């Protein structure tokens, strides 16, 4: 898919990670580039909320089918940190847990295999360089019904920026308190219970961007790059998937794992066999 | 020292970790025992604040002399989590960093070796058992002048408890929001800038406990156990020191390290040589 996207650049191919489009993160990205925090040292991300499982048994319960906090939420955070910092992860360390393996609706011989608690660390640095000066810690906990915390903090040598939900706060070293840099514009559309506010507002901005991109050309057969320039590419998607796999490997091995982006197309049969094998053990 | 303390039980020997005495943690301990959160799953601790370094070069700059976030603050958190949960760490994984190695006052040939960022995970379980069902993550960051965050959260199967500063909040699964379980009584004594509120209030409670303990006996030659029953013993101190050492080992090796409490007295000469050796490399 990455190769195909490269081959037809006139076709729009973007990943559906909408957090990049949330105004708070757009502003954060800009301020980081302008040096608000100085040299970046630590990123700390926390997402807490209720269970991600569907009411009935389905893919959300199954790690191999893409369920769980790491796949669903972690991947959007990995992409976001890449966007915000401009750095990529070189080494990762992770820990996945499934605390709730059965509930009132998923029981009997069925068990949840997807993670409801996921913690990982990433050592990040410039693309191509192998030294990672930036330490990122990401904590995802979906055993907290009745709450929703979405916090992304970047601490640097001269200050820090924190996005809480859809709001952005900042504090420079030497100042007495935090300042609100961008308020929460709120959601004016119909109520969407299933989707947390940052993702909802981000999705809305992304769709607006897409509309502008196509409206720019009369016949809507081509599109303008500007409004969707910040969208993740398929290359970004491959990077995110590689980090996710490395975190899962690390959770099994207990060791730091290197993030090595695939440069050759894999043999699909080989991968399928491996997945089936893994499922059996 | 542990052996000596065991040998003279009529002499009072307690460790100076005062967080156990903070009313918020006393209440949290009680609620955890009563099953407020159900089965404990995850503990998440964050301490953020300004630099721990002294104005001039001294022991606070030197890892070998006991400086740094892990030694100064981490040890009190390790002790606190042992007190709150009743569990001990079996395996730990850690990452230490010194982002600020020189500043306006520490420069030239001198460098800070003590950590200003420390992250560690502990897998905890019942003493004696080797399975660790409880995942603890602890993030200490002392590159954040102008702020002080001290947050200890325990998430369980039926609810959660969070101590923010000296206040305790709780939420049971199914309820709509957090409830304030214990407010901050505040500090009425003279202003103490160097000590954060939770430590200051804890110290105050500990000293009150010590007074009661000795006042209970007319001649003040012996002491009553009751008021200082919750104080950490020298055995607890040895446990904390063992975990600290394991976290430091893990930060070097990059691997999970086992926490093995020393049962025989070490050869002091051997240890000194090892420390000097380590310092050279």
UniProtKB/TrEMBL annotation, chains A, B:
GO terms for molecular function: oxidoreductase activity. The keyword Oxidoreductase applies. It comes from the Eukaryota. The keyword Disulfide bond does not apply. Residues 25-161 form the GFO/IDH/MocA-like oxidoreductase domain. InterPro entries: Gfo/Idh/MocA_oxidrdct_glycsds, GFO_IDH_MocA-like_dom. Pfam families: GFO_IDH_MocA_C3. SUPFAM superfamilies: Glyceraldehyde-3-phosphate dehydrogenase-like, C-terminal domain. Keywords: Oxidoreductase, Signal. Gene3D superfamilies: Dihydrodipicolinate Reductase, domain 2. Belongs to the Gfo/Idh/MocA family. PANTHER family: BCDNA.GH03377 (PTHR43818), GLUCOSE-FRUCTOSE OXIDOREDUCTASE DOMAIN-CONTAINING PROTEIN 2 (PTHR43818:SF8). This is Glucose-fructose oxidoreductase domain containing 2. The lineage of its organism: Eukaryota, Metazoa, Chordata, Craniata, Vertebrata.
């Amino acid at each position: 898919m990455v190769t195909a996207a490269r081959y037809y650049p006139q076709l729009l191919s973007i990943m559906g990670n909408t957090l990049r489009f949330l105004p708070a993160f757009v502003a954060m990205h800009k301020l980081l580039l302008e040096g608000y925090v100085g040299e970046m040292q630590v990123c700390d991300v926390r997402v807490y909320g209720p269970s991600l499982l569907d009411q009935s048994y389905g893919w959300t319960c199954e790690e191999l089918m893409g369920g769980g906090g790491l796949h669903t939420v972690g991947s959007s955070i990995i992409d976001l940190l890449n966007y915000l910092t401009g750095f990529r992860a070189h080494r990762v360390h992770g820990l996945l847990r499934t605390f709730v393996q059965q509930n009132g609706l998923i029981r009997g011989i069925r068990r949840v295999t997807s993670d409801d608690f996921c913690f990982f660390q990433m050592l990040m640095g410039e693309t191509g360089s192998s030294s990672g000066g930036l330490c990122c810690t990401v904590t995802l906990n979906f055993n907290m019904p009745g709450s929703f915390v979405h916090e992304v903090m970047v601490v640097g040598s001269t200050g820090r920026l924190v996005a809480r939900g859809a709001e952005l706060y900042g504090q420079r070293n030497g100042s007495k308190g935090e300042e609100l840099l961008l308020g929460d514009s709120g959601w004016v559309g119909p109520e969407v219970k299933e989707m947390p506010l940052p993702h909802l507002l981000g999705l809305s901005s992304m769709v607006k961007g897409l509309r502008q991109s196509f409206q720019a050309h009369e016949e809507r057969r081509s599109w303008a790059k500007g409004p969707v320039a910040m969208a993740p590419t398929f290359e970004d998607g491959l990077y995110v998937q590689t980090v996710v796999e490395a975190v899962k490997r690390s959770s099994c091995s207990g060791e730091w794992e290197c993030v090595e982006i695939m440069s050759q197309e894999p043999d699909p049969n080989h991968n399928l066999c491996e997945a089936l094998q893994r499922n059996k053990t």
